[in-house]
Amino acid sequence: MTDPQPKMIMVGVELFTENFPLPADVYTRLPSGQYLLVGKKGEKSNFQSLHMTAQKKAELYVRGADYDTVIQFNLALARTAVGKAQVPTNLKLNLISGLADSAINDLVDRKIVLGSYERVKQLSGFIKDTVAQVSDVEKLLDLLSKLPADNASHGMATAAVSLLICEKMEIHSKPTLEKVALGAMLHDIGMKEIPDAILKKTRADRTIEETTHYESHTMRGVEMLQELREIPSDVLAIILEHHENALGMGYPRRIRDIKMNPLARIVAVANYFVELLHDKTGEHQALTPEEAIHYMEVTLGQPFNKQVFLALKDIVYAHRRAAS
Ligand SMILES: [Fe+2]
Q: Do residue 110 and residue 173 come from a single domain?
């Protein structure tokens, strides 16, 4: 199949909250492969009532050039709505799954997630259900709403990649997968307390004090999550250890693989990989999935857990095998 022109990106209907103005033109795809305009920028969204989108499982598209605008709009909306007591929890959860859909669609675009719309919904549905089951769901949504926009998307992408790694490693226990998803989604929650002036600097430009402050986002995240009832200790371990690596050269404790929480080993790899795909620190350019694997393996000398890294490498190269 050739790429349609201009490039279109599939988005979940959850990205368009009922009765809110559309941030961009929205299309559906006809069986012929052509795109039909179903909502114009500025019009109020009413996709929930369109029978055709229900039949097509709400498969909607936006132009590639508008995708960022749609995401930024949704993030702004999610941040406003999720923190408000009068907004129903269900709507807030829809916004969360809209964010997850977007992050996962980006992974589809990069051929990291292979498969259909159902596959995207399966992953984002799992993430949404995991959030919904947290006993202090409102408090958790409030914390998520205060994250900087980039961090919320990064957390969703890290959760999706972590789940793919689990699948490849044949980890099927639902409680384990839920802990991985939650820990991955929230791993950078402590960034909320790090000043912008430090966040904007590259690693090399930070003073020793600033580096220590930056690295404290791991511990701060744990402290913030301790406010929630019944957060599993594995989730806290993921947040604390997501920058550790197998060689004991990570932070904050510089512990080696053997001492790391097994679930944190997974999220540490997924986090680093997703960071390389979207690098905005100015330290290097954003990499393709294959370049990111090469960077982790050759440039860094593969400092992560071997089994987890090989599972990720397998995922990244799966589309090449499928194509040959
Ligand atoms: Fe982090």
A: yes
Task: Tell me which residues of the chain have a pLDDT lower than 70.
Answer: 1-5, 14, 48-58, 75, 78-79, 82-83, 149, 280-283, 322-324
Q: How far is the CA of 78 from the centre of ligand 1 (A)?
A: 22
- Distance from the alpha carbon of residue 221 to the mean position of ligand 1, in angstroms: 9
Q: How far is the CA of 204 from the centre of ligand 1 (A)?
A: 16
Q: What is the tally of structural domains in the chain?
A: 2
pLDDT tens across 169-198, in order? 999 999 999 999 999 999 999 998 999 899
CA 68 to ligand 1 center in whole angstroms: 23
- The residue segments making up the domain with residue 129 are 89-323
Q: What is the mean pLDDT of the chain?
A: 86
Same domain, yes or no: 171 and 308:
yes
pLDDT at res. 265: 98
Give me ligand 1 centre to Cα 38, in Å: 40
Ligand 1 centroid, distance to 274 Cα (angstroms) = 11
Place of tokens 């009832």: 229
DSSP secondary structure, 260-297, as one string: S-HHHHHHHHHHHHHHHHT--SSSS----HHHHHHIII
CA of 188 to the centre of ligand 1 (A): 5
CB-neighbour burial class of residue 19 (10 A; exposed 0-12, middle 13-18, buried 19+): exposed
Token digits of residue 138: 């409102």
pLDDT tens-digit profile of 96-130? 877 888 888 889 888 898 877 778 888 989 999 99
User: What is the residue whose two structure tokens read 């939650």?
Assistant: 182
